[in-house]
Fungal-type protein kinase domain-containing protein (Cristinia sonorae), 924 residues
Amino acid sequence: MPRGKHTNLLATLYEDEAANGPQHTTLPTGAQSLDLIRPRPPNTPPARGLLSESALPPTPVAQRLGYTSINKNGSPQTTAVKEYLHALVADKITRSYDTVEFIEDVWGLPREELKEPEHGYKLPIDAVKHYMGAAYKKVDTDDGPVYPCVERSAYEPLSEIFWSISEQIGAAYRVRLPGLYAVFVLMRDRIMNGHFANFKPDFLFSFLAAFERQSWLLTALCGELKKSRTSKPATIVESVDIKKIVNLPRRVRKSNPETPQSSSTPPAVVTESEGPSASVGGKRKAQSMVSHEPPPAAKKSRSRGNDDPSPAPVQPRPNKIRSMNRKDGTLPSYPSPTPSVSTSSWATPTKEKSSKGSAITPDELQIIKYINELGSHGIRSYATGFLIVDYDITLWYIDRMGVVSSSSFNLIEEPHLLVYFVAAVTRAGASSLGFSSLLEFPDPSPVLRLPVQTFTQYKDVKMVLPTARDIHGNVLENLDFSIDVDAKGKSTRRIVPTYAAFGRATIVIPVVASTVTATKICVCPPEDRKLVAKVSWQVEDRDGEDEIIREIHEKLAADESRKNFLQNIVSLLLSTTRTMEEMELPRARMFGLSEPHRVCRVLVMHEYLPLTAVKSVKEFGSIFADVIYGHHAVYDTSEVLHRDVSVNNIMFYYKNNNSGQREVVGVLCDWDLAKKIPSPGNEAIRDNLLESFRTSKKFPEGHVPAGTEQKKPTVQQPSGIVGGDQPEKEIDVLRYRTGTGPFIALDILLYNKAPIHLYRHDLESFFWVLVWFVATFKPQSQSCGVIRDWLSNDLKSIGETKKALLENGTSWYNAIDCNASQEYRRLCKVIDKLRRSLILPLYKEYVAAEESYLDAMKAIEEDNDHESPMEISGLRKYATESPSTDQTVSDDPTTAWKDFVSKLDVMVEKREAILTFDTFTKCF
C-alpha cells in the first residue's frame, strides 16, 4: 500500500482531544489527615445531561492508576500498570495458537483469498540485511523509557520491510475496499494520548498516515519490538511462496450425533483434506483457557453449534503478586498458574518449548499493556497487536475473556506468514479490527475513505439491535440508534469507556433513537429520543441487570403505596443479550477455547445527569433522599440489594411538578451487581461474625485453634475493587465482596471472610458516598475529586483507614469539614451525627464482639491443664467452626464458650438495631 500522504480531517480530532483528554493531569494534593486531590474541571453540563459524561470520576482502576501514589508527574507509572495487568491476566492466557488459523479467525481473510502480484512477493533484501545486523531494545520504567542500546538501528529497516510488503499487497489486490485502510506507522517514541494513560508503542497499524498525530481511537492494532545485536543467523528467503498458505488444509469441527459429547470431551477436529483420521498437530492437543472466576452455577445452556471444548482444571491463582520495582525497569519471572495452550503451526512445525515458556515475560507484558489500552478506547469488542523479538513475531488477541497468542514465526525464514498477516490486517473491515459488530458504519463512497470523525465521534455511525425486549418483556425487532457524540466537546454527550479490555468492560454510549425505533419504544417527543446504551460483557449464567430491573419495576408497579418510587429507579427501554457467536467474536471460531463464556448485554435507557451536576445543596439533599427511599422500597418489595452504591451510581433528572415548577428527581442506577438476598436472620449474622473471628490471626500468643492455620481471607482482585462478575451459588456457601472500594461497608472490608450482604451494608455505603461527595465536591467547577487513602490495592487496608478515621473525631473534622466547600459545609453536621450515633457504635460493637471471642479462647486455653487432650482437641475444633444449632451450643462442655455464644446473640441483636432505614433517615 503506498505510503504517500493523504488528505486528513484532523481539525475536529484535535478539538475533540483538547476538550476530552487526557483525563489525568498533574494534580495538587490536599489537606490534613486525608489526601484529597481534584481532577481538572470538566466542561459545564447542559440543562439536561445523561449517563455518559466525563465529569464522573473514572472507574476505580483508572482512579488508582491516575490519582494515587501510582501517579507521577501526571502519568501513571508503568510498573503499576504492568503489576495490575500481570495479576489480571496470569491465568487467562492461551498460548501458541496456530498462526494461520489465528490470522484467519481474528482478521477474517480466508487463506484461499490471499492474492499475489504479477511477479510474486519479494522481501526487500537490503532492508532485511540491515535489520539482521541492527539493534533496538526499549525498557519502560517509571521515569520513562530507557534504551540499553545506544544505537536503535532496527527501527527503520523493519519499517521498510512492512512498507514494502504493504505496497506489494496493494498491487496484488489493485482494487481497494471502501472504508478502512490500516497503514503501518513507525511511532519514533511519539506519545499516544489516551483516556487513562500516555504510552509510546513502537508501531501501529493506523487509519491515519504516518506523519499525522496518532490516536488510540484511530488505531487498528499496535506492535512492540525487541531486537538484540547478537541475533542468531537466519536464512533469507527472498521469494515468498504464498502457496504454503493458500493450499493449507483447514480444520473443521465434526460432531457425531450418535455419541453426544460430554462436558469433559473436546470436539472432534479433522482437516478438510485428510478426513476423520487426521491428527491435530500429531503430538499435542490444545488445552482450555482457565479463569480465576469461579465456575457459574448451572442455570441454563446456550447452543454454541458443534464447538464444545472441554474445560481444563482451574489452577489456583497466586495469593500475592511480588514486587516489580526493579531498578532496571525489568520484571521478575512468574510461574504460570495455568499451562500454556499449544497447537501445531500448520505452515511450519511448532517449536518445542520448555515449561518455563508459560510464564509471562516482560516483553509479553509490554505488548499486553498496549493492547489493553487500545481495547479500552472506542466501542470495541476486542483488540489485537504483535510482538517482535529478534526475528520471531507473535500475534496477540485480547477480548473480555482473556488473551490468546499465536505460535511465533520467523519473519525472515517464513515470509509467507508475514505476508498473510499484513494482508489480513490491511484488508480487514471494522468488525474484524475489533469494533463492535453492532455498529453500522456509513457508506464511504464516493471518496472510498471514511473520515476520522467516524472513529473519534462515531459520526453517522448507527447501533443496530436485530432484536430486543422492552421493560415488559415484549420482543421488538430491527431497532436502530444514531450514536450522538458531541463534536465540539461542549456538552456531556461522550462515550464513557472502562479501563481494561478484560471482564465486563462496560461502555456507555450516547444514542438517539431513529424515528421508527422511537415510535416502537414510545419516546416520540424529540427531547426524549436522546438516550444512552450501556454495553457490557457479563458471565453467561449470571442474572442480567435487565432482568433485575424488570423484576424491580414489576414489584413496585404492583404496590400502590410504593409505585411512585419507580421514578427513583433507572428506567429501562430496551435490552438484548447476544452470545459470542452472535457478536462475531473471533474466540467463538477458535478451537480449544472453553469456559468461562461471556455474553454481550446491551441496555437502552433514558438519559440522566451525574451527581456532580447539582446546582445547590438543596438539590443534592433532595436527590440523596430520593435514592435512599427508592432503594428501601426496592428491598421491601423485591428483596433485591444494589450492592454497588457509589457516587457514580447516584444520578438525577429534572421534571415539572404538579405546580409547574421544575424539581429534581434522584435515580439509583447500575444494578448489574444487584442480587435478591432475603433477610438472613440474626443466627446467620452471628455465624458470619464467628467465621470472621476464627479466620483472624488475632489469637492469644501460642494458641492457634485447630483448622485455622489453613484458613485464608477471601482473595482480592488486584485492583482492590472486587466486582460481582463471579456468580454466587448459595448465600452461606459462596460469597464475594462486591462494590466500589471507597464506598463498601466496613463489615465487608474488614471481615476475614466475606459476610452475607445485608440491607444495612448498602445503607452504610450511602453514608460513605455522602462523606466522599461533601469532602471532595467543588461547586464552582462541578467536579468531584477522590480520597487517595481509600483507593488502595487492598480492600482491608481501605477498611482499616476508614475505621481509624471514624474513631478519631479530630482527624474526622480535619479531613471532612476542613475540605468541604463553604456551601456544603452545613452537611458536615449531618454527617458527624450519622458517624457518632450510627456508624461508630456499629463498629464498637464489632470490636467488643471480637474481644469477647478472644476472651473465650483464652478461657479454653486455660482449661488445658484440666481437660484431656481429646476434649481439648474437640473444643478447639468447635471454636473454629460456627455453631449451626442450639443443640451444638448446649452440648459444648465449656462454660466460657457457652457464655460467649449467649452474649454474642445479644450483641448481634443489639447491633442490628443500630443502623436501620428509620434510624438513618431520622438523622438525615
User: Anything to note?
Assistant: Residues 86-248+284-291+312-430 form one domain. The radius of gyration is 29 Å.
